[in-house]
Amino acid sequence: MLQRPRRNRKSEVIRQMVQETYVSAANLIFPLFIVDGENQKSEVSSMPGIFRYSVDHLLREVESCMNLGLKSFDLFPNIDESLKDKMATESYREESLYLRAIREVKKEFPEACVITDVAMDPYSSDGHDGIVENGEILNDATLEVLGQMALAHARAGADIIAPSDMMDGRVGYIRQVLDQHGYSGVSIMSYSAKYASAFYGPFRDALNSAPKFGDKKTYQMNPANQREALIEADLDEQEGADFLMVKPALPYLDVIKLLKDNTELPIAAYNVSGEYAMIKAAIQKGWLNEQRVITEVLTSIRRAGATAILTYHAKEVLQNKWL
Ligand code: PBG
Questions:
Q1: Which of 60, 76, 254, 303 is 20 to 30 A away from residue 88, measured at CA?
Q2: What is the C-alpha separation between 280 and 92, in angstroms, rounded?
Q3: Cα 156 from Cα 320, distance rounded (Å)
Q4: Radius of gyration over alpha carbons of the chain, in Å?
């Protein structure tokens, strides 16, 4: 045999020499859940190790991440039911929990990268990402709400706006609103290929944001489709997105690879709540080795072509020095 691939695996030094893919702190984005009040820290029952923080605790959590070299955060609010309405007006109210949180984080940690989620669901009394009329999700009317929300985030200091709603034309609309108001430097990370996935369940527990009726299949993508992701990606790129995102990550590695091969933009992948819950549950049962399985998951997402990974594992991998 002339070719013996095992020769390149014979020692730790050689294995490391030929290693093709790495994950580093710089690639990781940590999603954080926030809740109103003071001195609040409650664990999400379906996501062991992940908490909802009041703003005071949020600042301490951001600080401890910054000290580990984890500097990018995606914030998500848990909104009291009494503040929700059909038009999600709480999403751009100046003194809202979310806008306060963005301002406080940027004030205390100006060098942190704050990513904000643009979609109506956490603020909507219908639990949908768009305006609901007679059981339908209105596209173009929703864009106006998303534009107001994105502008409020930019004013509060967001570095990157991440529309996760899947309405048509929202990237272009948000880009135009931001530019018209002097925020041409604020980036857009578009959830381009966001699938109607069962893996978002624990996230909806964390935010109490599940749809009150029906499902999200008229706007989020059919999990059976790959080519359709190219249509979404092309549109987002033409409309001015700075990053394209694929979500969820692990069940959609083929889509990450497909987009990577078809765009020059950086690809982000969202290793979602259900992926986290599944792994933590198996670890708690003693069925999987924690360090090995988590680093394998993150490495695989990078290998498929993701530049950045949004993951609930971000802090623990750095704290435990697993990378
Ligand atoms: C809201 C949004 C969702 C997630 C991120 N932004 C849920 C949904 O679309 O229902 C899911 C993230 C996760 O599961 O970790 N538009």
A1: 60
A2: 35
A3: 33
A4: 20
CB distance 192 to 164 below 8 Å: no
Can you tell me the distance from the alpha carbon of 65 to that of 77, in angstroms, rounded to the nearest whole number? 19
The answer to whether 220 and 192 have CB atoms below 8 angstroms apart is: no
Of the residues 247, 260, 280, 315, only one is catalytic, namely 247
- Does the active-site annotation cover 194? yes
Domains of the chain, CATH where assigned: 23-319 (3.20.20.70)
Ligand 1: does its nearest atom lie under 6 Å from the Cβ of 200? yes
- Tell how far the Cα of 68 is from the centroid of ligand 1, in angstroms: 26
Per-residue pLDDT of the chain (323 residues), as tens digits, is: 999 999 999 999 999 999 999 999 999 999 999 999 999 999 999 999 999 999 999 999 999 999 999 999 999 999 999 999 999 999 999 999 999 999 999 999 999 999 999 999 999 999 999 999 999 999 999 999 999 999 999 999 999 999 999 999 999 999 999 999 999 999 999 999 999 999 999 999 999 999 999 999 999 999 999 999 999 999 999 999 999 999 999 999 999 999 999 999 999 999 999 999 999 999 999 999 999 999 999 999 999 999 999 999 999 999 999 99
- CA dist 261 and 27 (Å) reads 19
Please state, in angstroms and as integers, the Cα–Cα distance from residue 295 to each residue in 25, 180, 290, 302, following that order. 12, 43, 9, 11
**Dist. CA 203 → ligand 1 center (Å):** 6
Check: pTM over 0.90? Answer yes or no.
yes
